[in-house]
């Protein structure tokens, strides 16, 4: 190297030969990075010295495996929809729409893996394997031939593995965290911390709430303890003291259960001082049965492995340190604070499993089939967005601060350094993508989530592009898909079959989710159980099972009343009557709904708006409420009365303008109006509110309640009452815009409401109702009900 730099000889050897991948796959990768990896964008020019050249020789496909052998290209590019809208043709439940990007992509990967293995109509694919003597053969693909590479495994690996396991795929993953966050490990660590120091509230509450103690309804039990001893001399009692006092001062079932636990707890504390730590932990597992309990839970095999791994760490710690429980807990705290721990895998990488690993861990390795998911995830560019930026070449970049305006904005130095840091970060992401794609030997599957319009956008913008992309296109990307989509469109436009697009619909995603819960090879006995058919022969009676079934089938005998409204307006109750709706609104129910009707503008931007029919009706009721029937109530007198209402602010000017004075004059001159005029004074009562309690079966369609206290309160307001001797006349104004032909239908609609007015007056006053009158002002008609 020194001789080469000094010009005294030497030469550069470009390691271009690739002895791993098929030639068509390398050609596709070369075509991609020819366009993406430029010196301006990535500080590396992907020229002839960088292009990969195939060095591995693959045998031809056997005659009976036509279409089953991988040939390297085209590279699959699968695009999943970002939005999971409701699809009427989808078979899955609506909850599928709530799956996030990782779960959807994992479900697709599971479906594609099963296609490779020959499930369904697809033939089982073949991969090339090398025998110990160096020969190459084609064999059926297995789980172990597939790897899923992730940019980072901290948040996605376990979620991805969980979805694949639900699809029945065996998984081995390299996990770097999550051990201390598992429920079973946290329960045991809480118990160990309590054994180390019993005067701790949070560890004690965690232990009492866990299955280690076995309290029935543990949250209720903890609340009972706290309510029994909330405070002493104005200060809150520590929870651990409250629990001890409850055990000592109470004699109920909870106190007995806590007493048994503390007896066992004291035994463990003694053991922790006398015996090695691993023996204490093993004794806890054995005496509580916690290992067997966790083994029976969902993902029980992994939970058991976590607990056994904690036991192994206690054994290892005891071999080089004899400082006891306190030092062991500090040791675990250090591990958790520094790097956390990954959960132990229940399967090894050598088993027939699909492996999940990071791209960095895959360096130097090779795999027959590689999946690269999550390519639509945004790049992490936080290093270029900090307030203080540092670059070795451009030194320090600080933001400018305007103290007078209390604002901060980028300076020239910070902008230049941010652009340089962004370029370096994107160049690193490009190199990581190169490493990931070159791990595949025979086939590469790319998976991303994006908007539906992206494909057409890429093809229209970059389909005619030739040569490398400009630096601003590469550096303007927000995710890997922003590179792959335009490059794939440009490669296809050049006539190369390097990539194969596969846009997917929400219905396809739904089908992948459904497949996770679908079993295709049930035995007849399993199929009968799945269909909930009775067992043959039937099992012998079991009292405990019958009691469980009875509890599961229990129905609260007052369930119909639990959802009823306690109070209801009379007008709303009247509209609930089916017979009234059927006769009064038949035409409205059958009429088509206008979907193109625009909402009215708000008053703040529309100015004066025309009043609605409801507003006009309210205005008429206000005038009749305050009208002095002893006066003329015609012409100028009626105008003066309305003006007086305006001065007293009883009515708005806009409302007063729409009141029909002709209708009011007609009503005053009517026979009913004359009755009101003759009874003016204390015998005329207006706007009378009332509350009437009725049995629920008279209001709702329910069976009678056996409890007389079960009642529904109906609230209403009567427009006008006229007292005549020991009886009343009920008058209800109606401002409906109806003609003479429509009045009969409205009478049927309002009949339940006015009948309720009659019942309310008679029950509340003890007086009879001589008559109930509906006054249709617009139609100038009066009907006695």
Q: Shape from CA axes?
A: extended
- Average pLDDT figure: 81
Instruction: Report the end-to-end length measured between terminal Cα atoms.
Output: 112 Å
Portion of residues in helices? 40-55%
Q: Largest beta sheet: what is the strand line-up? A: 7-10-6-11-16-3-17
Helical region count? 32
Can you summarize the main beta sheet? 7 strands, parallel
Structural class: alpha/beta
Radius of gyration in whole Å, from Cα? 41 Å
Please indicate the percent range of residues in DSSP E strands (runs of 2 or more). Answer: 15-25%
Low-pLDDT segments, ≥5 res: 86-98, 578-597
Structure summary, number of beta strands: 23
Describe the structure.
There is one protein chain. The chain has 785 residues and is of the alpha/beta class. 44% of the residues lie in helices and 16% in strands. The chain contains 32 helices and 23 strands. The strands form 7 sheets. Strands 7-10-6-11-16-3-17 form a 7-stranded parallel β-sheet, sandwiched between helices. Strands 18, 19, 20, 21, 22 and 23 form a 6-stranded mixed β-sheet that branches. A two-stranded parallel sheet has the order 1-2. A hairpin with a 5-residue loop joins strand 4 (126-130) and strand 5 (136-140). Helix 4 crosses helix 19, helix 9 crosses helix 10 and helix 11 runs antiparallel to helix 13 (300-320). The chain starts with a helix and ends with a strand. Mean pLDDT is 81; it is low at 86-98 and 578-597.
